[in-house]
Design goal:
Shape: elongated
Number of strands: 3
Largest sheet: 3 strands, antiparallel
Oligomer: single chain
Strand content: 5-15%
Number of helices: 9
Radius of gyration: 22 Å
Low-confidence stretches: 1-22, 55-59, 61-72
Mean pLDDT: 78
Distance between the termini: 18 Å
Helix content: 55-70%
């Protein structure tokens, strides 16, 4: 997979996916693309030759995707309501779009004319501007960690660009590894704070209605924001009900952690092990 095709995947992930799945699934899908990018990066670093940017699958003639709307931005980060931060987030996404456009342009250039160090240098500047955006700065945005999945994807794109510079003979492999580890450290900080905000999960059962003939306990599992992750009506006269609820609750908690945290952790691990 070449980096210009990665640009199209980035666009697809941040647009199409957000209209069809909820915020939790969006987080998982976005970070998963970062994993896939880093798989290709590691393969190229091992071989040490060729181009990660050549033979573009997606370029200027490739599929076009709609711009992010407020709905899709909210799927990425739906906690913050302060207008100043929301504006920064839109600006962050606009810069991500600019990186995507530059990736496509570079992919077309490499395909038809070969490597262009000047364009590649400009692409690196754009990518570094993206990961240093104020929307990701804790001093500006108290809730910056909610963008951890998007940062995981952006960091993977940046490492892919560093890798292309290495393959072009412009920087040693150690430069790629150092950049990846620095990004992993920042992403690890974001993930730790995200876990503090999104955990612990809360569970319980409401008291039965004293006027109902049948004794029923309405049980629930919620995240810290009150969103229901699972629910079930437990009837004590059926002994298997309690065991079934415990199993269902455990599965819902596992899936919650997998989608919100595990994919981001996988990107961190890959960044540290290039």
């Amino acid at each position: 997979m070449k980096l210009s095709s990665i640009a199209a995947i980035v666009s697809l992930t941040l647009c199409s996916a957000t209209f069809s799945v909820g915020a939790t699934e969006q987080e998982e899908k976005t970070a998963t693309i970062g994993e896939q990018i880093l798989d290709k990066v590691k393969s190229k670093l091992l071989t040490g030759f060729g181009s990660l940017l050549a033979d573009a699958v997606f370029g200027s003639g490739g599929p076009q995707y709609v711009m992010l709307s407020e709905e899709s931005l909210q799927a990425i980060q739906d906690r913050v309501r302060k207008e100043i931060v929301r504006d920064a987030e839109y600006d962050f996404i606009a810069e991500f779009r600019s990186v995507e456009a530059s990736l496509k342009h570079y992919g077309d250039t490499v395909k038809y004319k070969g490597e262009d160090p000047v364009l590649l240098g400009g692409l690196l500047i754009k990518a570094n501007d993206l990961i240093n955006h104020r929307a990701l700065n804790s001093r500006y945005n108290d809730d910056f960690f909610y963008l951890a999945d998007t940062y995981a994807l952006a960091a993977s794109v940046v490492v892919a660009i560093y890798t292309e510079r290495h393959l072009a003979g412009l920087v040693p492999k150690s430069t790629v590894v150092t950049a990846a580890r620095n990004l992993a450290n920042q992403l690890s900080t974001m993930l730790a704070q995200k876990k503090q905000a999104d955990l612990p999960l809360r569970s319980g059962c409401d008291d039965p209605d004293p006027y109902d003939q049948a004794v029923e306990y309405r049980c629930w599992l919620r995240d810290p924001y009150g969103n229901h992750l699972a629910s079930y009506v437990v009837e004590p006269q059926y002994p298997e009900d309690h065991a079934y609820w415990e199993s269902r609750k455990a599965q819902a908690e596992l899936e919650y952690k997998q989608t919100k945290f595990d994919k981001i952790q996988a990107v961190i691990d890959q960044l540290r092990n290039l």
